[in-house]
Amino acid sequence: MRRIVITGAALLLLAGCATLQNKNVLRDDTLDGYAAALRWGDIQGAWNYVDPAVRAEHPLTPQQKALYNTVRVAEYTASGPTATDADTIQQTAQISLIVKTSQHVYDVLDHQTWHWDAKAKHWWLESGLPDINPN
Questions:
Q1: What sign does the dihedral 100-106-111-114 (CA atoms) show?
Q2: Are 76 and 93 in contact (CB under 8 A)?
């Protein structure tokens, strides 16, 4: 009986580790996919990483879409991610942008908050797309 209990406990522990590992792999894949979408200028692709509730509440305006079309990403460097709790991470990305018409380069900081949706098994960007207005 003792052997059965120990075996059962070990299996539960392994299953928990596998779930955590899978969640971390999905996190890394999501962050990499989002970064790639921004680097390639795929704003619609990056928009698809934003939490659907945030997209519904704050849809992209035609002015925002037009602004994103005026720049090209030269560099995207992220620091993090840092867990704030079991289902939330934050990271900051420095994004270098080139204005297509003038070749002027400027940087923006993108403070990102990502949340794990256990039901959908998906990481969602809660903070929205970066504000790319030059300061």
A1: positive
A2: yes
Domain ranges of the chain: 2-125
**Token pair belonging to 11:** 């299996």
CATH no., domain 2-125: 3.10.450.100
4 contact partners, CB below 8 Å, separation of at least 6:
none
**Digitized pLDDT (tens) for each residue of the chain, 135 residues in all:** 666 645 544 444 444 444 556 999 999 999 999 999 999 999 999 999 999 999 999 999 999 999 999 999 999 999 989 999 999 999 999 999 999 999 999 999 999 999 999 999 999 999 999 999 987
**Helix, coil or strand: residue 19:** helix
The torsion region of residue 70 among left (phi > 0), alpha (psi -120 to 50) and beta comes to: alpha
Helical H runs in the chain? Answer: 2-39, 43-47, 52-57, 62-68
